[in-house]
Request: fold
Amino acid sequence: LYKFKIGGKKKKKKKKKKDNKEAENSEQNEQNENKHNNVTKTDEIIYNESLVHEMALNSYSNSNWPFFKWTDSESNCLCLINNQIYIYKDNNFNVVSDKLKLEHIEFFEVSPEQYITESGENNNGNPNKRKVFLATYERGTKGNSSVFKIFNLDNLSKHIYSKNFFNSDEIKLKWNKNGTSLLLQIHTQVDKEKQSYYGSSNLYFIDTIKLKDVNIMTNKGLIYDTIWSYNQNKFYVCKGEIPADIVLHDKNGNIIHSYGKHKFNTLKLNYNEKLLLTGGFGNLSGDISIWNTINKKEITKTKSSCAVICEFFNDDKHFLTATTHPRLRVDNNIKIYKYNGLIVSKLDFDELYNVIILPFNKIKSQSIDISINPNSDLQKYINKQLGIDSKKVGIYKAPGSTAKTSLNGLGIMARPPKPTLPPGCNFVVEEKTSKKKKKKK
Reply:
């Protein structure tokens, strides 16, 4: 049984009784600390708001988290209960303003709000008229196809867009900042064409204004990562077979630039979008490259082996990688890098479960010099930090061996040619004794 609470109070746990002397000493120490910190001790932590709504559920799935989903203006709250999406307005949970019933619905997502003028165009300066979309996914059963639908939140009687899929085990949605487009990623666990052990993927770019879609995944392979730009309507995709293609698309789904093929599966952008981080984590070696998004050139390379988490800091100059538990039960750590690839700090932990960076609006970002070019001396220092020897490893030669090599340069002496025989036969030289025995017979 799971409970979801909005607001409320949280009581502290009661401490065990101590001896009189220990209790007096601890109270004096706490009073001194409270005086020093100007804090008054209370029995419970009181929030500004009281409990607004409480609901009990018999089941829970990660795809429906968070359970309550608000629009950007917080005027509408939506939740999914027993194949029905309930909508509450103005945080009044006593009255259901609207609801949408769909059989076999698995999850839903709410788009960012669009500001619409009377002519139907986007207008960020008009806060009175807002447009919100509701995206739903229904899993197919008994030979029926799975269905993805988009509704207008103001009119749930009929969907404005739908797409059917016959093979879909997992689905992911990513809206752009304005809510005018979304990326629909579909994944199947089993590839029927038997081209990949990890299944197959597909990616669609959907325009919610024109109600058109574009198939981004034109070649075979998987979709490893997708990321929208924060300030502009363009997105990056890491797709295909390893080494994967890293491609930049515009707001219409057209290819703008290709960064080539690399052994990467992770994409990250800093807040001002001047730097693109590409990394190969998980089952890859942990290589990291930093790219200049203006001239599309690689700035530097570094590495973070066994990393699970990778995020940019809010100052746009640093990023971190973390090895967490239980993905890896040893060597849990946090590494902090500068954007030029240098390791600034490393923190070790016995068990590290997660790392979260404050949102972008908490700290003002600083401007950085993106005119930096690849520096060979700096790269040598980075390799020294990582313990990587930049010298090329030659062919191994055993002690005492001669300098003679074969024609193919592999260090193996060439063997004399054997006489031509039928397949499967080996040339055997008969001994003299065997020849004499044959003559006597």
In short: Residues 20-37 form the longest helix (18 residues). Residues 1-11+51-166 form one domain. Residues 8-13, 35-45 have pLDDT under 50 and may be disordered.
